[in-house]
Amino acid sequence: MAEAHSAVAFSFAITHEGFDINYDHEVLNLVFSSGVRSWKKRIARARNGIRNGVYPAHIQSLWLITAIALGLHFAGYQAPFNLTNKILVYLPSNTINWQITACFLTALTVWLSICFTMRYTLKLLLMYKGWMYESRAPGSRVSIPTMLWVAVVRVLSSWNKPGLYSFQGSLPRLPLPSVHDTMQRYLRSVRPLLDDENYERMTALANEFEHTIGKKLQRYLLLKSWTSTNYVSDWWEEYVYLRGRSPLCVNSNFYGTDAIFMNLTNSQSARAANVISLLLNFRRLIERQELQPIMVQGMIPLCSWQYERTFNTVRVPGLETDRIVHYRDSNHIVVLHKGCYYKMLIYYKGRTLRPCELQLQIKEILESKATPLEGEEHLAALTAWNRSKWAETRNTYFSYGTNHIALRTIESAAFVLSLDDEPFEFDLKRPELLDSFGKKLLHGNGYNRWFDKSFTVCVGNNGRVGFNAEHTWSDAAIASHMWENLIIDDLESDGYDETGNTKGIPEFTPPTPTRLHWDLKACLPQIEEATICATKLCNEVDLRILVHQEYGKGFMKKCRLSPDAFIQMALQLAYYRDAGRFSLTYEASMTRLFREGRTETVRPCTIESSAWVKAMENPSTTNDERVELLKKACERHQLAYQDAMCGNGIDRHLFCLYVVSKYLEVDSPFLNEVLSEPWRLSTSQTPHGQTPKMDLKKHPNCISAGGGFGPVADDGYGVSYIIAGENLIFFHISAKNTCPQTDVHRFAKNICQALADIRSMFEQHMKDHPKPDKSITNGVSK
Hints:
Layout: H1 2-6, E1 10-15, E2 18-23, H2 25-54, H3 61-74, H4 83-88, H5 96-126, H6 144-157, H7 179-190, H8 196-211, H9 213-227, H10 233-242, E3 254-256, H11 268-287, E4 295-296, E5 300-301, E6 313-316, E7 323-326, E8 332-337, E9 340-345, E10 347-348, E11 351-352, H12 355-366, H13 387-397, H14 401-411, E12 416-419, H15 431-442, E13 455-459, E14 465-469, H16 476-492, E15 514-515, H17 524-540, E16 541-548, H18 553-558, H19 563-579, E17 585-590, E18 599-602, H20 607-616, H21 623-645, H22 651-663, H23 669-675, E19 681-685, E20 707-709, E21 717-725, E22 728-736, H24 744-768, H25 774-777
Parallel strand pairs: 8-12, 12-13, 17-19, 19-21
Antiparallel strand pairs: 1-2, 3-14, 3-20, 4-5, 6-7, 8-9, 9-15, 10-11, 13-14, 16-22, 17-18, 21-22
Helix pairs in contact: 3-5, 5-6, 7-8, 9-22, 11-12, 11-16, 19-20, 19-21, 19-24, 20-21, 21-24, 22-23
Keywords: Acyltransferase, Fatty acid metabolism, Lipid metabolism, Membrane, Mitochondrion, Transferase, Transmembrane, Transmembrane helix, Transport
InterPro entries: Carn_acyl_trans, CAT-like_dom_sf, Cho/carn_acyl_trans, Cho/carn_acyl_trans_2, CPT_N
Protein name: carnitine O-palmitoyltransferase
């Protein structure tokens, strides 16, 4: 129990000679510093709360209005509605001090009226989504209502510099679609997947649902939409994530990679130190709400509520349902190296440690000769185990004593850092290296990632980094923003010297990282079983990261097609060639235009996309016909994406109706069938360019390869892609190697072939239909 004794900061004893007082000055100083830091954060949160509460007005405008009220009153003029004199009636006297008080109260009333008028005006304006459907084709004109809307929104949103959460009170609620509209969209989406007989059967089920139980379920859901901030998000988090009993590893967690085209240092300790420092800077921006909210087209805000749980957050297992625990503050991280866990302080002597000081701590860990305690090396496999089994083990062996203290240290850490003993490599001539890089980040060896934490930073022994993130606390866009910010800051901060180490001279010797102590003898059988399950899970997954350099966003725009729709159509063609059939396809879109919005599903397999795919496989179809069919398919996909972003999707509405039916214990054959349909092709585009600091023209190699996730269905594919530049696309393709129908390498070849066929198709179309020379048409010579 030496660690317990070392934690005692103050003690006293009564002896025959009097009082005997002992205290540890350093520990008491840490406690005092922690208290001061906590109160500073509370004051900052209160100040930011006031600022956000009155946004888009400015707090300083109150003093201006107060000065005007004082001037009007003492100049003998009446304030609006004679407020000052009306307030004076209720004050004790009419002295100068009470007159000033009345003027201030008048100013406060007028100021609050202006604040709430501006706020709700902005909220009403943000409900308008007509701008989303405006044509973006060259030469097209924007409608007059949208132009007026843009002008007013731009003024209000730029009136005052916003904080991270300034727009939260102005964002509209997610609208609830009608059952009829959702049924029509659903039936249209499944038409290419069903033969005539099954389609007629599904149409009958949908009509029966709409005119019977659907009305009742919709009324309850309508009530929820009125009383909650977002009628989807809380149920989505609980039933899709927290109640899931499958292991988080592969099934839920996702990963992100380094900027693979640049190598800032080969020093593992230096890169780890700078990454820690930059992440702590990002945490401070969130805590102080100094991080700029993401604005679509520079004026339309996205919801920022998911950022709050980026750091100091853990998913705690439960027997039936997990829970997300977020700690307000944390002054340490936990480092995992060679199966040993270390608590590493990141805040010391009144400030956050600098990179050069953090590197000293990392070096101590890397140079340590410590060996894992019995069961410690495979301990993290418990977080990759079935959630109910992990919860039972946690309640039995980790709810008290040494294990409880150590586990709480991990769960309350800002994040977990894993120092791997192998390199994260990349070489265009050896694609298997990048595949291995991705697998190390997706699941590692099954026990060198703490899958319960909001994210684990992974550092290879060659200085390359990546992360593995838990999915409940946020969607990939938030982690992507954090990672994009880190990559560009790591480059621009110029934090490495010529030897590859961090720059700067430590002002003091930082505190030595301390080993976490465990007593795991009693739960060794559970750890062994979890390790076997985690290893099996890792071995069953295959991953292929495809680097497509033939063309990218530039050629797609030249074809006047949405890049996302372009790639989705290529995936449809590739899957049809791979599987010989169409399949229900999932694409995630965001609903963060609404308060507490997360995602909605876009269904890329449409009537139009299937018609184009069939035309591509039909030799008798002309090239012009194929081009026109592709354009129609992309337009339909773009419309579906816009509908999803505007709250008019299909699947979240059906999901919530299903939850209501379960609460009411009402059985619905239609909902049961819809919610049991497998997503054999699950896709997602990794967001890019979320921070204005990212300038690929200035730093062309400062681009992450994106990230990926495991397959959703055992007989399907998981495909994540990032359009990284004008001539670069990354695809992360995952599948179960235990399924004979799927093969990530075959699917990657099909994607390449589909993209090549589309390019050839358009090049031939451009050759057959050359555009007239505008200079000659206008009578102007070149």
